Give the backbone structure.
Amino acid sequence: MALLSVADALALVLADAHPLPLEAATLLDAHGRVLAADLAALRTQPPADVSAMDGFAVRAVDVAVAPTLLHVVAEIAAGRPLDREIGPGEAARIFTGAVMPRGSDTVVIQEVTRRDGDTVVIQRPETRGRHVRPEGLDFKAGNVLIARGKRLTARDVALAGAMNYVAVPVHRRPRVAILATGDELVPPGTPPAPGQIVSSNGFALMAIARSEGAEVVDIGVVADRLDATIAAVRRARAAGVDVLVTSGGASVGDYDFVKPAFAAEGIDLSFWKVAMRPGRPLMHGRLGGMQVLGLPGNPVSSFVCAILFLVPLLRRLAGRSDLSPPSQSAKLGCALPANDERADYLRARLTRGALADGGDIATPFPRQDSSMLAPLAHSDCLVVREPFAPAAGPGDPCNILNLQF
Ligand code: AMP
Ligand code: MG
């Protein structure tokens, strides 16, 4: 099989991934969920003209010139509308959020008044409509204010509440099983024997999946044996997950059993090599309703592949309309050689606003070894080099992916 471009590989990953079924989320549980239907306001906000300040509700014609004396005929607090009209020469004491009484159209703030029993002296002229929030200023019943496919922020949740929703329709969270492979791997916290290393990939993958709103099932580390790898794939299936992500064992070495295990379980691979660096041995397939992503073992490779393929897959399943993390432009902080046929994702630091025009400078780390977690953790972004990109010098434009994970 020839090397696939990243874009073609992503298209295959997404080809038959569909948003998961709907469920209702109460407002308390709605944060971070993805809206499954456009949300239209069930009410108008504010529901009537209301005062924006503490002061006096008056008729604008009465306060066109000042000072002027008005008779205070009522007091109106928020939530207690007055059933009486304000006539000529009259005013009502009013507080923020209270409904403007009939006849009034303007609020004079208390700071420019002098109250004396049943009268008030307005010391400064005021214009019509001042300090009044008209009915529907924020939104009107029927307005679509949150679109389906949006991951709900704290602000969206507040808005949904103000729109009078108790619960909102969201997509079910994707469920993801994470499996590490390798005889050399031990969990963190155990003293590794000679030749052993600590398994770290799964923690990045689980963190990414969770921050995308998925539930994770940790299958742990499996030995480099065909039977053990097959058993682990079956465990993921039995857990009923939507996605199985493996790391390591994806090449064609004598100890790489992921591909044979996938084949033994009847997983149809849509691809197993992608023209990218880091991360060439990358597999995708399906087993019934379970999407399967076989990521490379090197920590940087599994991370970059997760950003490029797992994140969009989870977003599609979660019903999101924005699938890929957005790319941005910056200027290079150093020279780079011409690229070969594989897209390159270089770990880089970003110096924001470093250029005269306020632009950012991205400087790739000198060593781009796909085993190195420290520079990955210290990176702000990935500099994306397209296949066959020509040599570039300091100050040349480049595309970057910000690392938010
Ligand atoms: P593999 O693709 O299995 O040949 O693994 C490539 C490299 O990544 C090897 O050096 C592995 O030790 C390392 N590796 C594989 N899985 C993990 C993991 N879960 N955590 C840390 N390193 C890993
Ligand atoms: Mg291995």
Observations:
- The chain has a mean pLDDT of 96.
- The first strand starts at residue 22 and ends at 26.
- The radius of gyration is 31 Å.
